[in-house]
Amino acid sequence: xxxxxxxxxxxxxxxxxxxxxxxxxxxxxxxxxxxxxxxxxxxxxxxxxxxxxxxxxxxxxxxxxxxxxxxxxxxxxxxxxxxxxxxxxxxxxxxxxxxxxxxxxxxxxxxxxxxxxxxxxxxxxxxxxxxxxxxxxxxxxxxxxxxxxxxxxxxxxxxxxxxxxxxxxxxxxxxxxxxxxxxxxxxxxxxxxxxxxxxx
Length: 200
Description:
Elements: H1 2-17, H2 24-31, H3 45-68, H4 75-91, H5 95-105, H6 107-130, H7 139-162, H8 166-185
Helix pairs in contact: 1-2, 1-3, 1-5, 3-4, 3-5, 3-6, 4-7, 4-8, 5-6, 6-7, 7-8
C-alpha cells in the first residue's frame, strides 16, 4: 500500500510540476509518509521515475480494456479503444506530461510503456488476421502499422492537451475518432485483400 501511495503521489506531482521539479520531499509529503520511508521502497528519485509511466500506463490500459470489453471484437472495439484513450487524456490531464516527459527523464520507463502498448496491439491484430477481420500482414508491416496508429494517438492527445475549454477537447476527440474510422476502418480492417504484403 505504501509503495502504491508513493507511485500515485509521484504521478500526481509529475503531472502537476513535471519530472524536474518532482522532489522526493514533495512525493513523500503527498503520499503521507516520512521522507526516510521513501528509501525503503526506492533507491532514489530516478528509481521511482523508472516505474511511474509503466505503472500509470497499465492503469490506463486496464481502464480502456474494461470499456472495450463491452464491444464485440472487430473494428468497433478498436474504435472504442481509440476514443477511450482520448477520454483518458481528457479526464486525467496530467497523464500527457507523465507520458511525454518520460522520454527524456525516464527513457527506460518510456520504453517499457511502449513495449506494453505495442505488444497489446500485436496480439489484437494477429487475432484479427487469424479470424479474417483485417488484411493479413507480415510481422514487420504489423509493427509499422502499430507505430503509425500510435502516432495518430499521440498527436490527437497533443491537440487535446493544448486545447483550452473542455468542450473544445471533446470536439477534437469526436473529430479525431471520425478521422480514425475513415483511415483505419476503410483500409486495413475492412474487406480483406488477397494482395496484402506478406514478405518479412
